[in-house]
Amino acid sequence: MDSTPLNWEALDALVIDFAKSENLIEELTPSSTSSPSPSSSSSYHSRLLIRQIRRSLEAGDVDVALDLLRLHAPFALDDHRLLFRLQKQKFIELLRKGTLEDRDAAINCLRTALAPCALDAYPEAYEEFKHVLLAFIYDKDDQSSPVAHEWSERRRFEIAGLISSVLRANLNAFDPLFPMTLRYLISIHKVFCLRQGDLSPIPDLIERLLLEERDPAAMPPENMYEASPFDEMDIQALAHAVELTRQGAVDSLKFAKGELFQAFQNELCRMKLNLSVLDELVYEYCVYRGIVDSANTSRPADVNKSGSGCCSLQNDSTVVNCCSSKFSDDEPSTDNAHMVGSPEGQLDVMITQTTDIDERYPLETAVNYEDCSTSGRHQPDSLKVELRNRNHGIGERNKRKRWRGRHEEIGFVSEVLSGSNREEAESSFMVGSEDKYDMALAMKELACRGMAAEVVEEINSMDPNFFVQNPDLLFQLKQVEFLKLVSSGDHSRALRVACSDLGPLAARDPVFLRPLKETLFALLRPNEEAFGEHLPLHSLANSIQVAIARRLGIDEPQLMKIMKATLYTHNEWFKIQMCKDRFEGMLRINSLKEVGTSLLADAASRSRSSDTSNPGSSQATMSSSSGVLEDVGSPAHVSSSDVTFDENAILKVMEFLALPRADAIHLLVQYNGNAETVIQQIFP
Question: Where does this protein have compositionally biased stretches of type Low complexity (predicted)?
């Protein structure tokens, strides 16, 4: 999984889009503005509204949630099914307070709000109304009472999740693309590992990032309870993509009025992500990639550290990140002191609150040689942590953005750290290590520009043993230098590079011999075609950055580990399913897999790579845990090139037997593609 190719630039675009959409970063240049675009601002405003309503309900402040809904989303209260649930929860919360005044308020709520709603909310509403009256005589701590479920604080989270699901769809306030992509890839990763009996290489990370529980599904409109006219292919695709029953997929399509991709978004956003963990992973990645400036910036709490001055992540799902004053998206707020005032005022404060922009400083020339890297590795004595041409580092740093964090949500929790302690905790991460990041990023930038000779010179000055341990990178850099000289018409210097560098490398390692021959073919091409046509400079630059950073003791960010592992299982899962993922284009998963061919790859390997990228040419191996398949003895190996069954036959078996696509195909293989025969054999 670690060797899974990944398009870093595509991931950069997704991460930057997420950070901008959530207002996590701002430009450092004085002329730029930190406010999001008008379109993203509207969605951002809606997401903040949903989060505040969710947290109000989770804290038991139903009146605050109702006021916010009346002001910003009155359509939700027009649905009496939702209004009844909210009023019932308000009644319980008033009783929970236990004072005589609140008891009287609960009785008034029954008379003026709950009883009228119960008459026309839905058929079972009046029975539920009569049942909840038992809360008057059974104590909230009596776990054996008939209304123990109504008293449970879990009900707060259920109603909060339901309202969130409805608001997201109606306000078109879906999460940015990157969190949805993560949810989808991780959910497939979990299913794949469980079904294949494999151990995930990142179990702790994904368990903390993607929580098990989901928000309740939004209820379809009352006028869509009749039979659905949806395409069975859409139903099965949605059901298996987000782990729904067939009826659950039908209901989801009903709520989305038949729009498959909107239903898919609704279901993805029901999965709960821990925003504290996500922000930390994104911050670490942005620093590694040079997207944000690590100096003078507020950093989220470290997901790997515990007891180090900031609140650390625990194993439970309610994680409060004290350093950045953030909630995970499923956390309740127990501090109500900040929720006074009008709901509209609260929302305005939440959106307009910003932090000051720090002044930029040029790259420091002093280096702390005693600094320990984030990975804790021993640094080789021969490695000189300095950059001969510091203008590269300064120029790159000037392009970076400032990480601001989720300061718009600071009103939901009390400050745990004082200002002085906060600065100390935040600044401890990057002390003395900025130069290491800048050096790796500067080399990446030079390689991206095709300045191969400069890269080799700089790296040799820093660590003469670097290319001894990474001859493939040296060969590729010399290839770039050779082709650049050929394209400029300087054939004599190009041949000197081939004789002095490429030739000896190929003599020491035969694996370079064939690429060397192919490289020399550039001499036969016109100058304008020799350079740049098949040179994956970004891929080479990323490899150089990773190798240099690792040599400096800086490991790849954890987000990279997640993406590589989940992309690998995504590939393997759809080989097993013997079909193409209908949603990978929407989530840009296909662009994450589009990696330039290595300079070392020969024509045969490139041909093989293009063959395996075709879903119809891969060999799939499948071992099902289904008892039905064991009874009929499904084949262990099925080649998708042999599968010529009618799509309707596959869907029919999937629908009737509630099986994944691969299992349905395995059964059809045994019975000559006859769906009726398969069903008769299972249900004689």
Answer: 603-626
> For residue 72, how many other CB atoms are within 10 A of its CB?
19
Burial-class residue 426 by CB neighbours within 10 Å (0-12, 13-18, 19+): buried
Output the CA–CA distances (angstroms, integers) from residue 641 to 420, 604, 649, 653, 683, in the order listed. Answer: 65, 21, 17, 20, 29
pLDDT-wise least confident of 113-122, 277-286, 435-444? 435-444
Please provide the size of the chain in residues.
Answer: 684
Residue reference for tokens 């009644």: 91
C-alpha dihedral over 151, 163, 107, 133, to 10 degrees? -40
Supply the pTM of this predicted model: 0.74
Q: Closest by alpha carbon to 8, among 459, 439, 442, 444?
A: 444
CA 19 to chain centre: 12
**Spatial distance between the Cα atoms of 430 and 294, rounded to a whole number of angstroms:** 7
Across-strand partners of 420?
none
pLDDT digits (tens, 9 = 90+) for 68-80: 999 999 999 999 9
Given a contact cutoff of 8 angstroms between Cβ atoms, the answer to whether 287 and 297 are in contact is no
338 contacts 412 by C-beta, under 8 angstroms: yes
Collapse the DSSP code of 188 into the 3-class scheme (helix H, G, I; strand E, B; otherwise coil) and give the result. helix
By CB neighbour count within 10 A (0-12 exposed, 13-18 middle, 19+ buried), where does 106 fall? buried
- pLDDT band at residue 189 under the 50/70/90 scheme: very high
* Structural contact between residues 1 and 9, judged by C-beta atoms closer than 8 angstroms: no
If you average pLDDT over residues 519-540, what whole number do you get? 70
- Integer Cα distance of 469 and 663 in angstroms: 46
Structure tokens at 238: 């949605």
Exposure string over 276-300, b if 16+ CB within 10 A, otherwise e: bbbbbbbbbbbbbbbbbbbbbbbbb
- Which residues make Cβ contacts (< 8 Å) with residue 278, sequence separation at least 6? 179, 182, 209
- Return the C-alpha torsion angle 118, 122, 127, 133, nearest 10: -40
Backbone angles phi, psi at 401, to 5 degrees: -105, 170
Q: What is the largest CA-CA distance in the chain?
A: 97
Contact 653, 668 (CB under 8 A): yes
Q: Which residue has the tokens 């609704």?
A: 266
